[in-house]
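Entry 14. Two folds queued back to back today. First construct below, sequence then structure tokens.
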Amino acid sequence: MTAKTTILIIDDEEKFRQLLTRIISLEGFTVLEAGNISQGLKIIQQEKNIDIILTDVKLPDGNGIDILEKIKAIHPICEIIVMTAFGTIHDGVKAIKLGAFDYFTKGDDNDQIISALNRAADKVKLQKRIFELESKLETKYGFDIIIGHSEAIKNTIILAKKVSSTDSTVLLEGETGVGKELFAQAIHYSSPRKNKNFVAVNCSFFSKDLLESELFGHKKGAFTGAFADKKGLFEEASEGTIFLDEMGEMNLDLQAKLLRVLETQTFIKVGDTKPTKVNVRVIAATNRDLKKESEKENFRLDLYYRLATFKINIPSLKERKEDVEDLANHFVTVYAIKLKKRITNIDKEFLKHLKKYEWKGNIRELKNCIERAAILADNETLTDDLLPVDILNYNHSNADHSITSLANMEKWHIQKILLACKGNKTKAAELLAIGLTTLYRKMEEYHIEK
């Protein structure tokens, strides 16, 4: 056992306490001592790294069992072992119920004490590891990674944080690319379900029959190609959260089945006759106005009201222009690392164009723009000549910029992209956001060598 495991002994019998300290120290533990409850609590509040507490029951200023809850409130991961000269079953049961790790009578074999300490130390180590992993998950997926200081995004985060601690169904509304899945993850990883599965599915990716099978599973032989039983995503997400993106694309028949799941937490697999029970939280997202869609009978009104138990609108980037600079700097850091380039600055003119632009594709479009600029960059600063033509000339009123100059700029931009892609036309077309055929036509039009 390493000396990193710290034990506090609370006992008023000085000779016994000193003897126990010597025995435990020889096993490699770090030992602290207190003669009564008040001294013990003072040490507990001052020392942040106490792993195990050995406390007597009868102490000059109180009962060692009665302070178990206080200790757990200060150090939740700390394990407590209760000891007494007059052991009774009643005291033992009470101590365990209040959170004690173990209970033994003074004078018991020292090997028994050391064994209990080693088991308690292993449990503390495991709990610390779990806490560390949970902290990493929260750092990776929690609210802290949502970038921006605008009032619009701050108010949205406040709403999401309030609902995260509950099991309530959440409906995230917002344009494509605003970060709805990021918010869904943050809600899940800040909830009591954070240690369970977060399962995401885009409802627009599947046909009606395939989506039903994906969500609810099927029995062997339910349809052609169903060669074995299949567990659906709702089962995979049980005890955790399922994120249903693009809810507006779901077929009306499936909507009825989903409504039943939300109301009863049960469903019937494709080809089955018995219901399957789950315990799952649903977070849905859409870029449509589902209430208007229900008025057109494209979406069930009863499902809309069930999903909209707690509705959050994620603001578009044009509603939070103050956050463009923060987001751009973040993506510069991301792509500098990814591309192994030393890019540390954004030119003022580059930033000026970003702030003026409309960003119909929201954060996703901004991210792609920064990635493209980072690929093209030859030095530490992103300059405006690395921006696509549509962003450079957005809302431009200067008469000097004629069609000819626009054509020249487009030609230069295509050449720059081709150079960065080392002549790979497919990759260049992808970065330019145009078809491969269009790229070849423009290369011919501008007399760019193939």
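Second construct, same run, same settings:
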Amino acid sequence: MNAFSVVNVNLIQTYGDNKMIDAEVALTIVLRKTRRLAPRKVPLLEAARLILAEKVKATGDNPPFDSSAMDGYAIVASDTKKVPIELEVIEEIPAGKWPKKKVTPGKAAKIMTGAPVPQGADTVIMVEDTEPAERGRARILTKIEPGKNIRYQGENIKKGELLLEPGILLGPSEVGLLASAGKVEVKVTPPAQVAILATGDEVVEPYRKPKPWEIRNSNSYTLAAQVTECGADFHYLGIVPDDKQKLVRAIRRGLKSDCLIISGGVSVGEYDLVTDILRQMGVRIHFDIVKIKPGKPTVFGTFKRMPVFGLPGNPVSSLVTFELFVRPALAKMMGKDEAARLDWGWAYLAERFELKRKRRQFIPAIGSAQKGRLWVRPVKYRGSADLVALRDADYLIEIPPEAPPLSKGKRVRILRLPGRPANSSL
């Protein structure tokens, strides 16, 4: 479920540029301004994890003929009224071969799993309930009823039957179903192509040894992992220094994608150039400051209906704002159900917690299940540059603005961090 409620459009219109807006308003703007990508056909082997964009009907029956569900003998059930009985084996039918002879009383056809049931046979007895006999005969040891161990034509799927509706996430079983229906191409909402750009004179790639005033670029790699986890594709544009002309060139490349994410350069410092450059390049900025911690300097705009995000440079702020705003946008772009966009839930505080802030906050926490309840406890957290805290955490606890001290046992809203397993026992 979404922790943020849908807000009235009139509330959105009361906020202008350069004003702090609530997280609920920000998310509503993001979702209203984000458009679903145009469907296209892809080969079936590339369709997994994508959203189906067409109705699919069966082009034929499944199974396409009466087939054996077991290795054994195709026989006439009435022959087993008195057992044991010996039957003459008239042919052997492997899978992929069509029967040549008709089975009549006193006769049997040796048959393999998946092979067509021969004319005249009304049941298949498992090989375990038989034994070989002399002179090409088989001894039937147990009585069997008609219709056993036969998969009848069309019992799974009838020709013309609706198999899949648009909007379904294509998993392994859905892809297999499409293959069984003869679909070699399928219309889907494609994966979003997301450009990732890092900014800052002080930022260097991980393979570089930083100088005393430099830091390694973790944000782009974190964002690439988050984008991939969403089912989208990323294109890394590298690091651009705080230089207007270089930023313009890099952003222009990024604006050719379906979505652009820029890390850093979006605050109000003298070298935070990104927001003004975006405006000058024709990006309509819908908000540039959000009432949350971490993640206050978060920018969202659109360029010809394409979403553009400017995320804070601090690693935790970047990760959290991606989860709150970018992940839902990518989900909408790729046609995913709203319920799948964010993994919100409820838990109980395992200890008293006090935090006096005016902004909504998200605190890294670890969870444990006890007696059917999920209990969460904040981990040691040193602020928005502390990725170690997120390494140790399973959830983010949401602390509403102006919240009073929270006592032990207080029910709180939580967001499961990406890649953390869901607690299926709760």
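Quick look at the second one. Residues 315 and 385 are 5 Å apart (CA to CA). Confidence is low (pLDDT under 50) at residues 8-17.
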